[in-house]
Amino acid sequence: MAIQQRAERTRASILRAAARVFDSQGYERASLARIGREAEVTTGALTFHFETKADLAEGVRGQAREVTGQAIRIADGAGESAVRKLVAVTHELTLLFATDEVARAGERLARELGSGEGIASECPWRREVARLVRSAAEEGTLRSGADATAVAALITYVVTGVELATRRPGTPAGEPWLGETGALDGSAPERLERIWRLILPALES
Amino acid sequence: MAIQQRAERTRASILRAAARVFDSQGYERASLARIGREAEVTTGALTFHFETKADLAEGVRGQAREVTGQAIRIADGAGESAVRKLVAVTHELTLLFATDEVARAGERLARELGSGEGIASECPWRREVARLVRSAAEEGTLRSGADATAVAALITYVVTGVELATRRPGTPAGEPWLGETGALDGSAPERLERIWRLILPALES
């Protein structure tokens, strides 16, 4: 039992290290050697738990699905309208993608590897966003006549846009937010809040 | 002169091949050998024009800036309001990112390499979007009270969101557009059009 607990701790610490490396370097540049060093385990221990880099990526993506799933359940539990739940879900996701290396790594890996073969292609948060938009249309809190599919796509573009923006802190030229003289450079949640203030009136009935 | 023309043709065909490889494989996986094969040139000819992969990436990004710059000038030339120019610019960009490998490669490289050191950090289309939003605010075609910085960011998120969506045709789970039963899967310009129909009323005065 003690051995099993130790093995689980090692596995968890390998996955955390892998998430850090995938998040900062991307899948292709990430090496097993680097991940082993970050996790402070031997190559033997690393390959005992994960034989290949693809296995590690799949492990990190599985954990990312768990943490994003938890964040969505928390926001979804709030007893409000589906539109307000949608706003809450995007705030939870944005906070997660700004602060949680596993969730960030999951997003980066999904972009770089796609659904791939063998790698589970699930992207639960996009599906949840689409589901909440449909609920909002059914319960009548989505503005009548609004194109629900376009609303769902728009919201996922915004969440991803804010997430990508947190990856280039040093590139003012690429960021209209920073191009304004004297403008706040804006944390991820602040950016999201300002976007919602802009678009919510067009989406909510 | 004939020699110089031939050299320029070779250089152009190397850059086109590099764009194709960077666009489909990303920077890290792209190899000089593969690019040489795609361009049907010898390694000697390839390295005569571009010594390193970083040089090739910089060459492709330079060309991408040119083609996106042209697209923006075309859309910007239409004698309409700044808001309508903005819509036209996003349509030109989306069409370009859906069809032009150089422009697509430029976007992918910008995401993967960031502004880097030595690589020109310019991202003219985002700057142009920000400029047009400011013009719209000045001429009064932007809805009064709209947060111009947020508008610029929102528009760049949408253009990038549509571009990224064209990169995962095989992943319905990740795409709310495809999750709807019977919904159009939507070309990039159609997606953009549906998003604009949703948000333009909130942005235009």
UniProtKB/TrEMBL annotation, chains A, B:
Report any Pfam family annotated for this entry: TetR_N
Q: Which SUPFAM superfamilies would you find in this protein's record?
A: Homeodomain-like, Tetracyclin repressor-like, C-terminal domain
Annotated organism of origin: Streptomyces gossypii
Top-level taxon: Bacteria
Does the keyword DNA-binding belong to this entry?
yes
**Domain HTH tetR-type per the UniProt entry, residue ranges:** 8-68
Q: Which InterPro entries match?
A: DNA-bd_HTH_TetR-type_CS, Homeodomain-like_sf, HTH-type_TetR-like_transc_reg, HTH_TetR, Tet_transcr_reg_TetR-rel_C_sf
**Entry keyword set:** DNA-binding, Transcription, Transcription regulation
Q: What protein am I looking at? A: TetR/AcrR family transcriptional regulator
Known DNA-binding region: 31-50
Q: Does the keyword Transferase apply?
A: no
